[in-house]
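Summarise what follows for lecture notes:
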Amino acid sequence: MRRIKKSHNQKDRIICVTAMDRHSFYYQPVGSKERIWLFDTKHFSGSVFGFFRNHGRNLDGIGFSLTLRELHDLGNDHNVKIAKILDRIPAQVEYVIQEKEDLIQMPFIIHKHYHCSADFDRAA
């Protein structure tokens, strides 16, 4: 798994929520209850579910979570599906962090509405 270049905490979590037909991945910054959607897989994979179940923490039946440090330390594994997921997570996390920073740093632009003076009384 490649490193994330944006500023983040190693204790930020990746949450895998498994439905009957797919997996959904979320990013949760440390100290926050906000979960930001990263991506969904097209199909359910037992190996991906097993990976997060074996190495992650159970979140009250919602799904399983791993910290970014744990994901990086576990590596890409020898399973192709898990390797693809683990390679995709850092890119999506960087995108989410960048979007969040842009949203916070973007100044508010206030538009003043000016009335045009073209609506003056005309001589008929």
The first strand starts at residue 13 and ends at 18. The beta strands are 13-18, 23-28, 36-40, 57-58, 64-67. Residues 80-105 form the longest helix (26 residues).
